[in-house]
């Protein structure tokens, strides 16, 4: 649990190529929890300057409502990385996403550039958050040190295409090649107290498989998934939103806990079963998720 | 400030604008082609003039083929075209 802070939903992160003005201006209407404007792989080398200018102007001008705004910048090792970070911090982006993160030093180097930009543009220090995409074997081996490298980090994410190429395999429907990477990212993120975002599912016409994959990664512990098309948003939100039955069960557990507290009892029993701490934590998270995603409540607590 | 060469930015896709800026000897000349010229022509020209002012450009030919771009897109494409034409760097604010 995260204390009294409300949950920030990151069920879906919609990918928008940074040099496409049509997508940049309309992206917020589809209801994704986060928007990720890309300056990296979806932008050709000769259009890097154009995409940077376009995303900067969009950040400065368009009201994206409650969507969290993430920009995937080019790596600092490229000639574009520093300028990308400077422009996006000046533009007021919420989160800078680093591609191909391999070690804690990648995070620290990027954080140093963000800090310089925050000072230059009078942005309060620490405002700009970070997300790291892990896209190779070395990044997976170093996942925990990456996840704990900066207090600005809000999440780590898996980039599966590059990861599969790196470990010399291909992607399959059942995703067995990604099992270790996914599990490692979830455990590292949870140990660090941050979120974890799964990779994209690239067949936009196969909703059945998308739902299966979303259910599988939710079961593994992920907070959400990157999406490449607006049609993928609703099915994933459905998977991540607690059902009426789950909400009712969680509310019963919460009421039983409150009742036990009033009676001064340390042990809680519901329908003849003992409710222990993990059950309680799951129930409270379920209620928070339901509230954050505006799920329908038949019986409001209290 | 004067441009060194011609600079082009943008595309002809819906929601975008293709802008060509070139050095000129007689002020700022705007050649606007847009499906919404009647409705928004003067607003588009205002963005163009404002961006030229930010770069301190006084002599430039600007040719726009607009496909319904928002003001922020027109500005971004103007900045990119001017930078590609050697018109200087844009100051992030």
Structure description:
The complex is a heterodimer of chains A (302) and B (93). With 302 residues, chain A is an alpha/beta fold. Chain A folds into 2 domains: 12-240, Phosphoenolpyruvate-binding domains (TIM Barrel); 244-292, no CATH class. Chain A contains 12 helices and 10 strands. Chain A has an 8-stranded parallel β-barrel with strand order 1-2-3-4-5-6-7-8, surrounded by 6 helices. A two-stranded antiparallel ribbon of chain A has the order 9-10. In chain A, helix 9 links the parallel strand 7 and strand 8. In chain A, helix 3 (81-91) packs across helix 4 (104-120). Chain A is globular. The model of chain A has no long low-confidence stretch (mean pLDDT 92). Chain B has a single domain (7-84), classed as Ribosomal Protein S5, domain 2 (2-Layer Sandwich). The model of chain B has no long low-confidence stretch (mean pLDDT 95). In chain B, 34% of the residues lie in helices and 26% in strands. In chain B, helix 1 (37-54) links the parallel strand 3 and strand 4 (60-66). Chain B starts with 6 loop residues before the first strand and ends in a 9-residue tail after the last helix. Chain B has a 4-stranded mixed sheet, covered by helices on one side. Chain B has 93 residues and is α+β, with helices and mostly antiparallel strands. Classes of the chains: A alpha/beta (302), B alpha+beta (93). Chain A binds chain B through residues 20-22, 24-25, 49-50, 53-54, 56-58, 60-62, 86-87, 90-91, 121, and chain B through 9-10, 13-16, 69-73, 75-77, 79-80, 83-84, 90, 92-93.
């Amino acid at each position: 649990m995260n204390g009294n802070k409300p949950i920030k939903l990151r069920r879906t992160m919609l990918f928008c190529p940074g040099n496409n003005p049509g997508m940049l201006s309309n992206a917020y209407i589809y209801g994704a929890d986060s928007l990720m404007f890309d300056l990296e792989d979806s932008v050709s080398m000769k259009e890097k300057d154009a995409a940077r200018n376009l995303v900067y102007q969009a950040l400065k001008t368009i009201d994206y409502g409650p969507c969290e705004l993430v920009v995937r910048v080019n790596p600092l090792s490229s000639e574009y990385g520093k300028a990308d970070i400077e422009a996006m911090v000046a533009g007021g982006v919420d989160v800078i996403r680093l591609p191909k993160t391999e070690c804690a030093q990648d995070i620290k180097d990027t954080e140093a550039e963000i800090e310089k930009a925050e000072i230059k543009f009078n942005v309060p220090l620490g405002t700009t958050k970070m997300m790291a995409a892990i896209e190779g074997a070395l990044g997976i081996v170093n996942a925990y040190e990456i996840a704990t490298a900066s207090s600005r980090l809000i999440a780590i994410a898996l980039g599966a295409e590059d990861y599969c190429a790196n470990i010399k395999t291909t992607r399959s429907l059942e995703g067995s090649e990604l099992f270790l990477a996914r599990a490692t990212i979830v455990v590292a993120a949870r140990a660090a107290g941050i979120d974890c975002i799964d990779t994209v599912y690239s067949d936009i016409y196969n909703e059945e498989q998308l739902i299966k994959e979303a259910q599988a990664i939710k079961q593994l512990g992920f907070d959400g998934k990157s999406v490449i098309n607006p049609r993928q948003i609703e099915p994933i939100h459905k998977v991540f939103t607690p059902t009426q039955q789950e909400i009712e069960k969680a509310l019963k557990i919460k009421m039983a806990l409150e009742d036990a507290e009033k009676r001064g009892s340390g042990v809680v029993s519901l329908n003849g079963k003992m409710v222990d701490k993990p059950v309680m934590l799951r129930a409270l998270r379920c209620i928070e998720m339901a509230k954050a995603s505006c799920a329908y409540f038949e019986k409001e607590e209290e | 400030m004067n441009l060194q060469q011609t600079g082009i930015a943008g595309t002809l896709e819906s929601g975008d604008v293709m802008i060509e800026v070139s050095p000129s000897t007689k002020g700022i000349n705007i050649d606007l082609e847009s499906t919404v010229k009647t409705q928004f022509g003067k607003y588009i020209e205002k963005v163009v003039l404002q961006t030229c002012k930010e770069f301190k450009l006084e002599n430039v030919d600007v040719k726009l083929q607009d496909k319904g771009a928002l003001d922020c897109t027109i500005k971004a494409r103007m900045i990119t075209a001017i930078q590609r034409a050697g018109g200087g760097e844009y100051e992030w604010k």
